[in-house]
Known about the structure:
The complex is a heterotetramer, with two copies of chain A (311 residues) and two copies of chain C (259 residues).
Chain A: E1 6-8, E2 11-13, E3 17-19, E4 42-47, E5 60-63, E6 66-69, H1 78-92, E7 99-103, H2 108-122, E8 130-136, H3 153-166, E9 171-174, H4 183-192, E10 196-199, E11 203-205, E12 208-209, E13 214-215, E14 222-225, H5 230-243, E15 248-251, H6 257-266, E16 270-273, H7 276-279, H8 283-298
Parallel strand pairs in A: 3-16, 4-7, 7-8, 8-9, 9-10, 10-15, 15-16
Antiparallel strand pairs in A: 1-2, 5-6, 6-14, 11-14, 12-13
Helix pairs in contact in A: 2-3, 3-4, 5-6, 6-8
Chain C: E1 2-13, E2 18-24, H1 26-31, E3 37-40, E4 52-55, E5 58-60, E6 63-69, H2 73-78, E7 86-93, E8 104-110, H3 114-126, E9 132-138, H4 147-152, E10 156-161, E11 168-169, H5 173-186, E12 190-195, H6 198-211, E13 214-218, E14 234-237, E15 240-243, E16 250-252
Parallel strand pairs in C: 8-9, 8-12, 9-10, 10-11, 12-13
Antiparallel strand pairs in C: 1-2, 1-7, 2-6, 3-4, 3-7, 5-6, 13-16, 14-15
The structure holds flavin-adenine dinucleotide (FAD) (2 copies), flavin mononucleotide (2 copies) and FE2/S2 (inorganic) cluster (2 copies).
Amino acid sequence: MISTKVNLGGLEMATPVATASGTFGYGFEYLGALDYTCLGAVTAKGIRLDPWPGNAMPRHAEVPGGLVNAIGLQGTGIDRFVDITVPHYMAQVKDAPPMIVNIWGGSVDEYAEVARRLTEAAATDECAAIKAIECNVSCPNVKEGGHTFGQDPAVLNRLVSAVRAKTTLPLIVKLAPNVPDMRPYVKACEDGGADALSMINTIPAMVIDIERRRPVLANVTGGLSGRGIHPAAVKLVYDAHRATKLPILAMGGVYEAKDAIEFFLAGATAVAVGTATFSDPSTARKVLDGITDYCERHGFSSVADLVGALE
Amino acid sequence: MISTKVNLGGLEMATPVATASGTFGYGFEYLGALDYTCLGAVTAKGIRLDPWPGNAMPRHAEVPGGLVNAIGLQGTGIDRFVDITVPHYMAQVKDAPPMIVNIWGGSVDEYAEVARRLTEAAATDECAAIKAIECNVSCPNVKEGGHTFGQDPAVLNRLVSAVRAKTTLPLIVKLAPNVPDMRPYVKACEDGGADALSMINTIPAMVIDIERRRPVLANVTGGLSGRGIHPAAVKLVYDAHRATKLPILAMGGVYEAKDAIEFFLAGATAVAVGTATFSDPSTARKVLDGITDYCERHGFSSVADLVGALE
Amino acid sequence: MLDAAAKALEHVEIGADYRRLVLEAPQLSAALAPGQFVHVRVPALETSALRRPFSVFDASEGRVTVLYKTVGRGTSALNGVKPGDVVKVLGPLGHGFPVECDGEALLVGGGYGVAPLHFLARALKTSGHRDVVAFIGGRTSSDLLAVDELRALGVDVRLATNDGSAGVKGLVTDPLDDELARLREEGRRFELFACGPDPMLKAVAMRANGTGAKGWISMDRHMICGVGACYACIQKTVRGNSRCCVEGPVFRAADLVWE
Amino acid sequence: MLDAAAKALEHVEIGADYRRLVLEAPQLSAALAPGQFVHVRVPALETSALRRPFSVFDASEGRVTVLYKTVGRGTSALNGVKPGDVVKVLGPLGHGFPVECDGEALLVGGGYGVAPLHFLARALKTSGHRDVVAFIGGRTSSDLLAVDELRALGVDVRLATNDGSAGVKGLVTDPLDDELARLREEGRRFELFACGPDPMLKAVAMRANGTGAKGWISMDRHMICGVGACYACIQKTVRGNSRCCVEGPVFRAADLVWE
Ligand SMILES: Cc1cc2nc3c(=O)[nH]c(=O)nc-3n(C[C@H](O)[C@H](O)[C@H](O)COP(=O)(O)OP(=O)(O)OC[C@H]3O[C@@H](n4cnc5c(N)ncnc54)[C@H](O)[C@@H]3O)c2cc1C
Ligand SMILES: Cc1cc2nc3c(=O)[nH]c(=O)nc-3n(C[C@H](O)[C@H](O)[C@H](O)COP(=O)(O)OP(=O)(O)OC[C@H]3O[C@@H](n4cnc5c(N)ncnc54)[C@H](O)[C@@H]3O)c2cc1C
Ligand SMILES: Cc1cc2nc3c(=O)[nH]c(=O)nc-3n(C[C@H](O)[C@H](O)[C@H](O)COP(=O)(O)O)c2cc1C
Ligand SMILES: Cc1cc2nc3c(=O)[nH]c(=O)nc-3n(C[C@H](O)[C@H](O)[C@H](O)COP(=O)(O)O)c2cc1C
Ligand code: FES
Ligand code: FES
């Protein structure tokens, strides 16, 4: 028996496979199409204080190797989230996997307040599934949104510190991929008291409808995800792992076990499946099975032993 | 008859389709497999002062949607380049398209000296094909190389100014894609006296051989190119075009006319075909034919009218 | 919801660009209701390609039938499916039509929009509803789908084409308006059920709202997940930005907000 | 060099994992010399996939034949090519073997490395060279390719397998060493021509260098462009980092630097 347990900065995961924020709704939408026992965690869609309408339509375009999206973080606000959504998730999903809540806001204070509310809720039975916070400082699709927070290490540090002050939950910070060097950002998170990092968010991108001579997305630009970004994600995880001891939740084009194992070897403690779920909802299951199979073949008794295990 | 002429910061191109540096050798290697009359320019492989051995093998890995390479700028030095390579190109290729010479170096002085030598050579009959310099400040594969130059706007400005001082040839600066914001880099080039920009270089990436638990590339990391990076490239060209009047030579996943037209509409004056040539050497021909066809269908009498022509 | 591995039983061209694909998927077939849709993985596309959503033309006897128009990359690739091939089909998805109707059921369909109306018509007929009239429109006669199948169900079918090659020359709302006038005159009740291109749907919704009748409008929005997880498929409604794939695809005409 | 649109004429399995693909490409066929290779676009792979390089097993009468082992994604996809399909084939590429030899021609091949040696053997025989001995090795008997074809050309064929299932049990260098000893005793001249896995090539090159005989070694390096444009396919030589695709694939044994 291969041990699949991992600890992501205090978040105990029964398996190293999670779902990526924004690709798995509020956790329950894929019931029936996926065997949830394979999931070490689900990550909820980005939540902020108040409800948010998101961008105009169209919000996505299919591209070779993936997807460009500009959903714009449409979401129910924190009230409805803790009152209805999380309890619903827990009621619907038997042995519900721990939930990582992805948060964002228009100001440092808003991030901190959302974190406070979640921490409060997590202490109640109705929302006990809430087990960690993922701070999204890198969504390319909301101008007012978190993007700028993730682009300046000093601002990032302030943000992480403020959120840290309001939560005892494991705090994961989700970083932007389009930087010349991960290190200052990693350090800003470390110094701010983050428990883990997650990467990568989508890569800024744009698709033009040449017949209409217009951007396909109403938001003009969006974020590239899926198969094609995987090699770029592996590089960033590798860089971050060499710069820090913080555990890393890696995502970006995980379609097969091979993709996840590359992430582990590059230094990730866990992986999240995102865009791949759209084409095959059972991706996470297949990925987990492939990981344990790999461990068996290579004589690893625990997935945790794969982390950073490059020769 | 559609006019296909464009002017890229002083470089007169008979068509808006060039080849990308490092994917088309020194210009003559694809003779026989491509009708060269479709080319507005060829870009030579990166050249520096002295010969350079490049990285150890393996130097590439195929990935979905493209390629990760770490050739490491192997190349003949400037002496051999002007004495033998360029004259050979001109002798071999009938009506040789203008050559853009991609340069790099370990110091600002080295860049400047290579530029000076090229400018001198370009004035001779034997090397008259040399018509522009492309300053590579963004190759992810050479540590000692240009990478750092492209990561700091101040350093970039110093580099561009120094090269500018040594050359009267059209000066194109090739920027890195992995930045949070193109604008400071664009401004550094403008202020330094660049005539044009080119983008994007490859995106830093890594591939791991999970069976051997080793990076596939001897250089550990490399650069991602090809189809999958196209939407990210379009976004960066769009951003740069809105930030400057400098003309842009766009590259990154041009496989079909559609890809090139997206670049024009986003603001590029010309495009370069890179990785696509490897799978289909006649890509540039097909791309040009598709562009003129599009112009006809949409009532554009000149390709130049497409530049930035988003509705 | 389940992701069925469905075997293709039949795949035939039905006029110009339209095809009928019959799949064997007993569990899914039993679970589907009229107006719901399925999300299909096109086998020939690369693994990273998105699924394609299709309404259900019919679900019975362990089979699920879709009727589709070849319009782009995905549907072209779908053409290659041969009997015996296995296709992954996620469903049942979304909220469909109510299978009940107060008064005459007026079904209004354009192009492949007829597909869910056929399933609805059969269900209404099966549940004993007598007065079902279908208004079917298209550019030309070859765009009028399922006419014979509907007639075989005992549905009163009225046709309209832009070029007059079949039925009334004009829009599908022309014969619909005639019928609405007649019903108003006779003081009879009715409900509207529609699926097709946006302008047609808007026209039908306006008529429902204008007459105070119930209107059930099936919207067609670009989708990613199909299950409510991604928020790509927004339709503006009185409740804000609603997801077409779970809050729809069938919306009440009164709830829709048109831009 | 040209990028021929070649029609597949024949595609057959020849033992375990090996296949022979015969293509119609008159211009290319006429231009190819032994030891050169072609760069093949595998039709079933996505457009962005790299080409795959293959040595030429034979080129005559307007045909180009390659013999390949199915080892991965590209070669598996190549299996699907059917007679009548069109395959893009770039060639002739690289520097091949000299078709002349001072003394006995000793051909040493392993696995699919026999392919270019067959083309060479035929050319040597055609040009009147009598003494051609081929040493063919493999893991097991099914890895020994083109044995009958070589014998039919009048080549003296010696076999070796690791498991002893055909020929000598051991390495291909075992029968080679016997022959080298005999030649030395008789004071006869010879040249070595080799293609196969790296360890075998190194062993042959060492023997050439050790005896002062000429050795012609065909190297197999991962390639991108195949034409000298990308510098992916490096082989270390006394001249530095040489490109296998243009300076090779056949190198002089004396020029190779082994790591
Ligand atoms: C709820 C629902 C039910 C549908 N029922 C049917 C049906 O019964 N028969 C039928 O022929 N078609 C139906 N469609 C439309 C069908 O999904 C599209 O025609 C199909 O996805 C086009 O794919 P493509 O790759 O051929 O086209 P492309 O234009 O190449 O597709 C590119 C992308 O756009 C999306 N897309 C393109 N057109 C549409 C569209 N009209 N609606 C939604 N997404 C689109 C595709 O899914 C894909 O992601 C339905 C759509 C929805 C949302
Ligand atoms: C000059 C030359 C001549 C060759 N002649 C033959 C021949 O006659 N018959 C034959 O069966 N094979 C030959 N090969 C090897 C053949 O090119 C590879 O087996 C083939 O490319 C493997 O592709 P794949 O996608 O199935 O394998 P994968 O391992 O899935 O390929 C992944 C990548 O690695 C490359 N690659 C993998 N193995 C090799 C290899 N051994 N050499 C070069 N690139 C490789 C592929 O081209 C591809 O880019 C030759 C190689 C070279 C360089
Ligand atoms: C439709 C969509 C919506 C997303 N929404 C969010 C979000 O709300 N918050 C966030 O941090 N990341 C969001 N992401 C990014 C993903 O969580 C993930 O980081 C990215 O898609 C890369 O992984 P993938 O290639 O496996 O999809 C979204 C991605 C997609 C495709
Ligand atoms: C094998 C290879 C070698 C390259 N060498 C260089 C180089 O020497 N100098 C440079 O500026 N860019 C180099 N590039 C980057 C390309 O010029 C181009 O910017 C990039 O590949 C994106 O375009 P593409 O997707 O069309 O290939 C190289 C790319 C590849 C694939
Ligand atoms: S398609 Fe994902 S929410 Fe509707
Ligand atoms: S494969 Fe490109 S130089 Fe040899």
